[in-house]
Amino acid sequence: MAKSTKANKPGYRCAECGHESAKWFGRCQECQAWGTLEEIGVPNRATMARIAAGAPSAPARPIAEVDVETARARRTGVSELDRVLGGGLVPGAVVLLAGEPGVGKSTLLLEVAYRWAGSGSTSLYVTGEESAGQVRLRAERTGNVHDAMYLAAESDIGAVFGHVDVVKPGLLVVDSVQTLGSTEVDGTPGGVTQVRAVTAALVALAKERGLPVVLVGHVTKDGAIAGPRVLEHLVDVVLHFEGDKHTSLRMVRGVKNRFGPADEVGCFELVEDGILGVPDPSGLFLNRRETGVPGTAVTVAVEGKRPLPGEVQALVSKSALPSPRRAVSGLDSARVAMALAVLERRGGIRLSEYDVFTATVGGMRIHEPTADLALVLAVASAAKDIALPPDLVVLGEVGLAGEVRRVSGLKNRLAEAARLGFTRALVPPDSGQVPPGIDVTVTPNLGAALRALYATAEG
C-alpha cells in the first residue's frame, strides 16, 4: 500500500523551463527562476497502459499526396517584414512579436492590418492595452484606416473568440498577449498560468481555422520575452523588435521560424506619420568623409543574409583614475576587452594608463568576430593619432596569439563595400575570390595590420 502511495505522490514542474522535481523549491534548480514551480499529478502507470486507440482526425497519406497550396505564405504588404518571415504569413501560423515599450510594435502591426485589409481580405485588431478610440487616433495619424479593418478592445479571451466568429477575419492581431485573460483559468492576466492558457487557446484557434495570428509580447528589463518560456515553444515564429530611442532606426530580427530562415533581419525607420521599410540601410551606419579621422575604421557585418557596412570609433585619452575607464556602446564588451589585451600584448601599444571608449555609429550593434580587426585598428589609430584612409574597409577576426582569421561571406561583404565606393580592404589570408573594383591587402597577423596603419601615416 505504501508503495502505491509513493507512486502516486504529486511532483512539481517549473512553468518557465518545464523541469520536474519531487520536492517544492522556491527557486527552480534548472533555470533559476523564482516562484515558478507548480504542483502536478504523477500519472499512474497502470492507467497509462490501459489507454485505448482512438479514431484519427484524418487518415494518414503518403507525403507526396499532401496538398501544400493551403500552406503557401501570403505576403503582408510590408516587404521588410516579409523578408524576415520568409515570404509572408502562413495560414494557421502564430507569430510572436516582442519588443520594448514605445519601440513601434503597435504602429507596425497597424500597418500590417491595413495592408492585409487592402489586399481583399479582412483583418481584426484586438487591443487589450488601449481603448478603441486611442487606436483609431493612431491609425488616422499614420493613414492606416480601411473599411475591411476591424478593431476591438477586449481583455477576455472568450470575447476575442466571439469577435472572430462574427468578423471571420483573414488575419488576427492581438496587442498584447499579456493583457488577455480567461475566467476559467486561475491567476491574473499577465501571470504565467494565464499567458500559457491564452497562448495555447490562440494557437488551437489558428490551427483549427487556418487563421494567421500575430501576438504582441512584452519584454523584461533584461530584454527577454516576458512570461513562461513555453510561450516561445508554442508559437511558430518569434520576432524581436529592436531599436534605440535616440534614433529612428528599427530592426525586426528573426529568432525562431518554422517556415523560413531564423536569422533574417528587416530594417525600418520610425517617422512622425508611421513606419517605413528601409530596403537599403547600408548608408545609415556610416559617416562618409573625404579625409580620414584618427580613431575610426569601417567594417562590414552581416545581419541575416544582408551585409551592412558599419563604422567603429575609438577614443584613447590619458586617465586620471587609478583604474582607467573602458566604455563600450554597440559592441560586445567581452570582445572589446580581449581586443585591447591583444593589442597591448601583441601590438606593443600601452593602454593600461589610458581611458578607452569604443562605439558604433547610428545605433548599429556589431557582435560578430568580423569586427575585431576594425576595432583593433580604430583603437591603435586613436592611440597613435593616425587616420586610416576613408576608402578603406577592414575585415577579420583577431585571435589571442595576434593572428587574423578568415571570416565567412567575405566576397559578399567586399562586394557591398565596393558598391558603396570603398576601393581598398584589409582582409585575412585565404580569403578566396575577390570581387572587382576593390584592392585587397592580406594581413596574416596583427603586426602586418599595424604596419599597414603606420605606412598610411608615412604615405
TrEMBL record:
Alphabetically ordered keywords of this record: ATP-binding, DNA damage, DNA repair, DNA-binding, Hydrolase, Metal-binding, Nucleotide-binding, Stress response, Zinc, Zinc-finger
Alphabetical GO CC annotations of the entry are:
cytosol
Q: Where is this motif: RadA KNRFG motif?
A: 256-260
Signal sequence range:
none
Offer an example of a GO molecular function term for this protein.
damaged DNA binding
Q: Where is the RecA family profile domain?
A: 70-219
- Quote the InterPro entries the UniProt record gives: AAA+_ATPase (IPR003593), DNA_repair_RadA (IPR004504), Lon_proteolytic (IPR008269), P-loop_NTPase (IPR027417), RecA_ATP-bd (IPR020588), Ribosomal_Su5_D2-typ_SF (IPR020568), Ribsml_uS5_D2-typ_fold_subgr (IPR014721), Rubredoxin_2 (IPR041166)
Top-level taxon of the source organism: Bacteria
Q: Where does ATP bind?
A: G99, E100, P101, G102, V103, G104, K105, S106
Q: What does this protein do?
A: Plays a role in repairing double-strand DNA breaks, probably involving stabilizing or processing branched DNA or blocked replication forks. DNA-dependent ATPase involved in processing of recombination intermediates, plays a role in repairing DNA breaks. Stimulates the branch migration of RecA-mediated strand transfer reactions, allowing the 3' invading strand to extend heteroduplex DNA faster. Binds ssDNA in the presence of ADP but not other nucleotides, has ATPase activity that is stimulated by ssDNA and various branched DNA structures, but inhibited by SSB. Does not have RecA's homology-searching function.
Domain notes for this protein: The middle region has homology to RecA with ATPase motifs including the RadA KNRFG motif, while the C-terminus is homologous to Lon protease.
* Family recorded in the similarity comment: Belongs to the RecA family. RadA subfamily.
Protein name as annotated: DNA repair protein RadA
Name of the encoding gene: radA
